[in-house]
Fold each of these.
Amino acid sequence: MKVLVINGSPRFEKSNSIKLANAFINGLNEAEKNSIEKINVYNKNIKPCQGCFGCWKKTPGKCVISDDMDEIYIKYFDSELIIWSFPLYYYGMPSQVKALVDRLMPNNYPDIINDDGRARHPQRHNKEKQKHVLISTCGFFTVKYNYDALVKQYEIMFGDRFIKILCPQGELFNIPQLSALTEKYLLNVTEAGKEYIKQGHFSENVLQKINEPLFPAEQFIEMVNTFWKN
């Protein structure tokens, strides 16, 4: 399988989210041999969309901006699985990832179609078999209410071709004294990768493990607040 990892953290390989993504990839590769390519978005020159509609009128299917998205387009549409790895930024995706998503607009035709009451644009590249995994950490003690907007966007973009691993309390992965706890969690993410490539989803057992908070809420809140006070 051709896998493209979009690392959307400015911390690059020090990112907590990419630690989870790497564990997931280990699981994929334990199950079968895959071609893995990684893009560090914050290393790339990705200008924001100008809203000029040049990709619909002047150069249909091609953005009028020439930058690193030229290369990313090819890799993106050639991949069978996209792994989106980034931390939660203000209830959404980091700005450089949003720039990349906005620049996927050339894949849309300008026509509007009515899809069971939903207005949408038909796609130039038929990627109905392309799968997407969102892997994200955040600094809250819970996923509840914090990821709603981001998850909804991915559901709209990719429908049932999308699955997620959301891990709050992400900064705990940077604490060496907690390595026994965090390594156990990463092993569960590796197991999720193995299950995903074999059956296209996670078992209830693995889902329960990856959705289990690393620390109880009140204990985590106390730890975080003490850290910032100091």
Note: The beta strands are 2-7, 35-40, 81-85, 113-115, 118-120, 131-137, 162-167.
Amino acid sequence: MSCVGLLCCNVLLIASMGLQDSVLATIRGHYGGTLAYDACASLSDPAGDADAYERHIDAARVECVMETSVSLRAGDRQRTTQLTVVGDGQTLLHLGEGGTAVPLTGGAILTHKLARTLGVSVGEEIACQLPGDDSAFAMTVTQIVENNLSQGMYLTRSAWEGLRKGGFVPTAIYMQEPTAQAFDMLEKMDEVEDIDRTSDLAEEALIFLHAVSTVFSILTVIALTLAFVICYNMGLINFAERTREYATLKVLGYRQREIRRLILMENVIITLAAIAISIVPGVAFTGAILALVESESMRYVSAVAPTSIAIGSLTTFGFSVCIQLLLARKVRAIVMVEALKSVE
């Protein structure tokens, strides 16, 4: 029972710290990997020509995108999501695994979670319908990409223009290393609604993480309370059942320090066994919690840091040893005459 209690304690400790690691890794991976631009300017309707923006804005790289909503249907599954039309050969959205850059092909490009929700894979057809369009059109899924914090469908500009559903009207401008003159120019444009820096968005997301860290602290408190209740009670029961054995060891000449060492050694073996068994369930439990709290537009990556596993395991070990040190002090209070009485 002590082993089970310590195992559950360490699983909860690993999960509480692993959740923070996973959310932090997801945020950093999105804003530091997927989004390769430094600032984004949102445009209102009517916007100007995309090629004109890319020529005149002073930045290392400028790319325009068009965003709208689209209704997707595959079999009996239907979802309304965001459609993002990017320029051919775009480089400011890294949609590969781990935030790596991948070339976008023609046809329908779906994010991983959206494809899983619709139950489609590469090579299958989906029905698409744009707002205000009475007829749906079919597209073949040619690529599945990664974007953990923004699910949707992507099209290249040439693929969009091939559908003949309207011109490419930019709704946002992505900029890499924009200059101060670029910001001044954008602020003077009537069609520019807002300018967001990627670093500011990442900082706001980290502030949200700190705000919900109370939930992770509650898990830690529950884990330590569980360990104390189970280990202390199991220790008391164990000590009561073996008082006669401890008294016999005293009669045989064992000192109190040696008996306490035997008790602690037994506890160390149990604790180390529980910690070794709990590591894999702890990581799996973290992934299970993340899967439960995911929404249709967000996907968390389970990333439990080795330091979190080490800190959780050391905390469980130290807590267990402290409890056993309290119990081992009871050896001094054993009355040998009463302890050695038996009804056998």
Note: The chain has two domains: 2-30+208-340, 45-190.
Amino acid sequence: MEDKKVIMAIGGHIGDAELTSGGVLASMALQGHKIITVALTGGERGNPPHMTVADYREQKIREANEFASMLGGEAIVFDYADGELPDNDEVRFALCDLIRKYKPNVLLTHWKYSMHKDHMLTHRIVKDAQFFAGLPGIERELPHHFAGGPYYAENWEDATEFVPYVYVEVTEEGFELWKKAIQTHWFTVNSKDFKFMDYYSHLMAIRGHLARKKYAQAFTVDEESKKIIRTSF
């Protein structure tokens, strides 16, 4: 097997990374790589009628941990409330410190345009945290580490101007593991507003067709990263 990698998938809410990158995360976990999910808020304000916001937050944290555990990974949830993610250096340096601690090879997160303010802000926070973490001149408790990416996951809420650029295979085993693990998140199978599990299951099949695989997930990158370098044709 190739060298073990660490993949850090960062969402604005619990469940974002698990849906949009989860098939890839599950596939890589089965290949022996380390998976870290990070949610900058709990996503608790989508609470079902029978639960309070506070109780749903506790449930969602359990769901995040269970999903990550099924992949042999770890889940981290920041203390910020859904919809109240701050645009400040405190959250950026907290994420910077996590990047330095876990030393991910690559970061996965939200595309820059979204119908949700937490998603757009998460995009900016991740880019700044990546910069802070990789800069030797910024002294923190841990030494600097540069994480690759970010790769921006395909998300129905972040669809404006999203154009797939990278297709990553989701193995059949990874797809089956993801299907089991994602059902630990109540909203993915019980939401009356959107059929999350159905949508992302079918999207993986569609992207798989385009990638000449059975399943795949699509990502894009920053414009300045779109370089194909050849020595000749």
Note: The beta strands are 6-13, 34-41, 74-80, 106-109, 148-153, 166-169, 216-220.
Amino acid sequence: MSDQPSVFASTTPLAARMRPSTMAEVIGQRHLLKPGSPLMSLASPVAQGTKISSASVILWGPPGTGKTTLAQVVARGSGRRFVELSAITAGVKEVREVLDKARNDKDLYGVSTVLFLDEIHRFSKAQQDALLPGVEAGVVVLIAATTENPSFSVISPLLSRSLVLTLESLDDEDIAELIARAVSDARGLAEQVTITETEIAQIVRLALGDARRALTVLESAATSAITARQHKIAKSAKSGKPAKPKITIADIETAADRALLRYDKDGDQHYDVISAFIKSVRGSDADAAIHYLARMIEGGEDPRFIARRLMILAAEDIGLADPQALPLAVSAAEMVAMVGMPEGRIPLAEVTIYLALAPKSNTAYNAINNALNDVRNGVVGGVPNALKSSNFAKAQSQGAGVGYLYPHEDSKAVVAQRYLDDKVLDRRYYLPKEIGHERELAERWPKLREIIRGFKRN
């Protein structure tokens, strides 16, 4: 058998080998790489001994969008020293050591340092505070990477001293270009395998805009194709130069038997997807709601959290337009708690579809909010004497409970009676809609109100 192909020889992952060394090689993020943009300016060569410091930046974006790559390219292009720390392993001690070394290099040799801090959102406040002196004094150019919204995960003093640049997931054309380059490039697979547009499209679908994932799947599929070819040659014992291995759909499926959905249940995806889910149900789009439900389930979201949000939605957005919505949501939540997953997906789907298609009314939600607003603003008035408790000594002598009319003594169980002080007597909180079950309440409530308010005012 011939020597093993070099795809097996390197212990460095394909994604690392294919990392761009210049801005010209970077694929995607065109909105950040325009001439004169902060990143391009930061990547420009720095003259030896210069006293000019550049602004620090925070790169915010999904995994596999090039945050580490951009930091390395900036350092290489500008001639700065590159130091990388991970917030998972580094602490205050390591940060201070880097800052001390950077200060010495700048003072003694005029060499500026780029400090790349990966996953800065994992740094505590105290750890982020340790960065401030070096950033503020321009000792280092901080390039921090995060997959979470910096507004919530980065302390304000550090945020105010940095430019926040948002990275976007790579589009399909970018991922396809990256795959083609990796197949042909000497740093990558060096044309040891062939791949058609069909297989490239399959990897693109699996990548979900993540360059690292695309290259990981490609490398694994190439290994699978080359290994299968070697076994076939060894088994047949045929002589002559074998045909170049071809990556097949089967190789790709072996490499990635399922698409790993990018969903950070502690980060922005958590908030974005649950927001889209709730708004889809509220908007009566059952298909969209089920799609976002599937994304949350596949991403590992806590099903009890989903069930709680559905209960809230049933009360807030459907309310009295369909009184069965809330009990159904509560029942689904109880079943999810009892049976767990994966069976819990079924009641979640059932209640999601039911709530999406149910008539919508937020009148109960509006009623309590408007009443709370009055109470908080002092629009309260006193409790009428007839409604006060009479279950204590001398109650009646103080007028408590005197004159109360028991509604059940009336044939319709409703009587003309003062339930509110004059200060709030004419306030209207519940304004029913002419929709679903609430249509009946919209007819009934004005009639009841007319009877109730039929008493003579003092």
Note: The radius of gyration is 33 Å.
